[in-house]
Records
---
Amino acid sequence: MEFKKLLVTGGAGFIGGHFVKLALKKHPNLEIINLDLLTYAGNLENLSELKEHKRHKFVKGNILDRSLVSELLAQGCDGVVNFAAESHVDRSITGPDAFIQTNIVGTQKLLEASRKASVKRFLQISTDEVYGTLGDTGEFSEETPLAPNSPYSASKASADLICRAYHHTYNMDVVVTRCSNNYGPNQFPEKLIPLMINNARAEKSLPVYGDGLNVRDWIYVEDHCQGVLDVLMKGKSGEVYNIGSDNEWPNIEIVKKLLNLLDKPQSLITFVKDRPGHDRRYAIDSSKIKRELGWKPSYDFETGLKKTVQWYLENDKWLSGVLDGSYMEYYQKQYSN
Ligand code: NAD
Ligand code: TYD
């Protein structure tokens, strides 16, 4: 499937920003309207290389604003990719309201506007967190029942199911991707990897939740974005595609790797009170997208992690720009012993 103009939402955030840049590079005739509310997580610096780009138009606005969305769709959009979301589990625990509004109501409003505008395809960026948690063995497949545990994952699962309903009820062309934990440049330093890099650089303590043995399955952000492009162009209507890199690590091992890369002492590690309802393990079976669409990840973890650390070391200005101190205070209060 080919597209002339996409409406991409949340494209000033971490993954959306990488997606917009990759899509414009890989598809020389594609135009993108990038709608983003610029919440604390949205940052136009993530798009600085697109300032004069003729095929990219940035619009500050809310996916909940139905008339704005309809107006943008009427500018010739034939596809929608929805990255816009409240994305941080810890914030969803202390303040779930915005998650319900943006992630659930916002997705439904976008779907409805897209249906009325008869776009060719709607792609929902979901997450592996909709499947809940695993024990020591097994992996999530697309058939695993949804069993979300946090307000964040429950809001994403709700959106995911509303997408399913729009496909079944209205015969709308909807595809859904469920990806594992992303890492890479431009990730807001409230998430594990950039938070640890930032603290280690400043020789502040590294707050590891619980026993540090919770397991996540990490993928380099550009590999995820290539998977999204493949699903958008080649995926089958109504289908869900898992995206993951077969790269599981206990949190404590990641933190140790980062300290080694930054040449900082392991004594900075501090075990703190666990996150309430903390999912123990995520692991994703991505054989479907590999088999059916020919996607595969191109970064191994050592290369991706080195590249990420290097980027944060070289982008002090970006870091100080996003760090106004408020989130640090917030977490210190939530997770101090
Ligand atoms: P992010 O928090 O970095 O970016 C989210 C973006 O959405 C921000 O630019 C923000 O300004 C924008 N936004 C928020 N509310 C909005 C609204 N109401 N209207 C318009 N824009 C709004 O998040 P991210 O890590 O880049 O995640 C992007 C998507 O990928 C999310 O849907 C998330 O659930 C999903 N996802 C993330 C991961 C991960 O590891 N980060 C993994 C799988 C799936
Ligand atoms: P996070 O990056 O918030 O992603 P998610 O919760 O969506 O998987 O956290 C990744 C893992 O790291 C998760 O098990 C929680 C843990 N974690 C810490 O131990 N300390 C921290 O300061 C943060 C932010 C996360």
Note: Residues 97-116 form the longest helix (20 residues).
---
Amino acid sequence: MIKKKILVTGGAGFIGGNFVQYMVKKYPQYDIYNLDLLTYAGDLTKHHEIENLGNYFFIKADIADSVTINSLFEKEKFDYIVHFAAESHVDRSITDPEIFVKTNVLGTQVLLNAAKQIGIHKFVHVSTDEVYGELDFDPTTFFTEETPLQPNSPYSASKASSDLIVRAYYETYGLPINITRCSNNYGPYHFPEKLIPLTISRVLNDQKVPVYGNGKNIRDWLHVIDHCAAIDLVLHEGTIGEVYNVGGHNERTNLEVVKTIIETLGKSEDLIEFVEDRLGHDKRYAIDPTRMEKLGWKPTYTFETGIAQTIEWYLNNKEWWEQIISGAYQSYFERQYTLK
Ligand code: NAD
Ligand code: TDX
């Protein structure tokens, strides 16, 4: 039997890493290739458990390097591509937008072009709800797949641009694609620059937690495993050319999220420090997942069960996040925040 080859880009990062492990374990009949540049956000130690299973392979490469990507695709005839690789942190996009355009826009176009040359079964582009811009605080309004793209940050603008290039490869060349737009993820291996792991790691070290503005901005949280299951379903069952919004109706203000973590860890709310707001800070995100639900997807975690599992994971895997926050991350943190 010839095994199907699935290329996962960004599989050393948070969501891509969880997806690689999910696919390697669930589908021994597929060969899973993880292509990643190993930027500050990429780490392979998380894959020790799957390295020797026989259906996992790692390729170090830059998705924006067309020479390397084209020669790789000539050698390996991938059947499917699931594209996660990106610069993903909004704050970093505000201080240094250029790399976001290079990786997220040019990198996506390079992959699409290589995929077009070899002819693939499907290219799944993993995008974000942030491409829709922001919602106001009316709780009856949601992002649907028809909501116009109105990105506000350099990060979300680069993701929206990549979505449009993916669409153009479908409309112009008939490349078989899907685009997924998920809400905020959380769970194991979330890089500690993002709100939830930042809060957990700092509260565990009795350090102040920086909350931007008044803490009333709302995000719609989804456990990373539920996102992985949604992408798996779209990969196998998604209608070619379609966009799918992914979310589980778990809206929380940032302050609620931070307080939940502090309370679960039995610490004091005195650790909260309100700091200067993020520039162009989107007020609210909230997903209408009806199209995904019609495809047969539903999340397995509520926010309560998911955050409890995540906090437990960070308690049991201190060595993973401690080696990150003790390294080059330190100087990023000092540049980004002026906290005690
Ligand atoms: P992450 O920052 O944790 O991981 C990104 C990975 O991409 C890293 O392993 C990094 O080394 C790799 N990478 C970066 N530049 C590269 C390049 N030029 N070539 C090859 N590899 C490169 O990101 P994440 O949070 O796991 O997000 C993954 C994807 O999901 C992104 O496309 C993001 O836009 C999207 N997304 C994220 C969320 C979220 O809440 N984190 C929600 C919705 C969608
Ligand atoms: O120190 C902080 N203090 C704070 O109040 C940080 C890092 C964040 N925040 C706020 C900003 C946001 O309202 O918390 C909220 C969540 O912030 P992030 O964790 O940076 O996520 P967000 O900006 O919402 O973007 C995330 O979700 C969508 C991912 O990083 C993106 O890659 C994804 O597309």
Note: The first strand starts at residue 4 and ends at 9.
